[in-house]
Amino acid sequence: MIELATKIFLCLLIAALFGAIIGYILGRIVKCDKNNQKEPRPLYDYDELHMDNHETAPLHKEVPVSIPDAIIKPKTKHGIRPISYPAPKNNKADDLKKIQGIGIKVENALYEIGIYHYSQIADWSNENIEWIEEYLGSKGRVKRENWIFQAKALLIQKEPNI
Predict the structure, then answer these.
(1) For 80-125, what is each residue's pLDDT tens digit?
(2) Which comes out higher in pLDDT, residue 90 or 34?
C-alpha cells in the first residue's frame, strides 16, 4: 500500500512540475507578444489658446495659440504633448531630417502628429520630450541626440535676422 501511495505521489509531483514548466513557457510567449504590440494612438483632447505673433518669436518658451493654428494635448501620465499644427505654415514643412538622429521614418511620424518646424522642436520642454519619446518608443533619444539644440541652430541658420 505504501508503495502504491509513493508511486501516485511521484506521478502527481512530475505532472505538477511539467505543468509549471509548460505554463511558464506559455506565459513568456504571451507576455512577449503583448510587449511587442504598440498601444493605439491616443485621441486628441483640444484646448483653446490664443496666438500672439508666433512668426516673430520662433524661440519662444510658451506661445498661446488658437485652435485652427495649433492642436495640443493636455498632460498625461507620459508627459505633455507638444504644440502641434494641423498643417505646416505656408504649406512648407522644415526638413526635419537635417537634425541628426531624425530619419525619414521619424520625420514622417513627427509630421503625422503635427510637428513640422524647427521652432516647434526648439520649444520642447522636458514633459514634451517625455511624451515624444513615449510616442516614438525610444526613451532618452531626444536628449541623447541633442534634437533641441540642433533645431535651435537650424532655426537660426534658416532665419539669421532674428
Answers:
(1) 888 888 999 888 999 999 999 999 999 999 999 999 999 999 999 9
(2) 90
Question: Contacts by 97-104 with C-beta closer than 8 Å and gap 24+?
Answer: 98/150, 98/154, 99/145, 99/147, 99/150, 99/151, 99/154, 100/145, 100/146, 100/150, 101/141, 101/144, 101/145, 101/146, 101/147, 102/147
Q: To the nearest 10°, the Cα dihedral for 80, 121, 146, 132? A: 30
Query: Cα–Cα distance between 125 and 31 in angstroms, integer?
Result: 33
Note whether residue 68 is domain-resident. Answer: yes
Say whether both 31 and 62 belong to one domain: no
Indicate whether this model's pTM tops 0.70.
no
Consecutive H or E run containing 72: strand 71-76
Q: Which residue has the higher pLDDT, 73 or 95?
A: 95
Number of folded domains in the chain? Answer: 2
**Grid coordinates 520649444 are at which residue?**
123
Same domain, 26 and 61: no
- Domain of 127 in residue numbering reads as 54-158
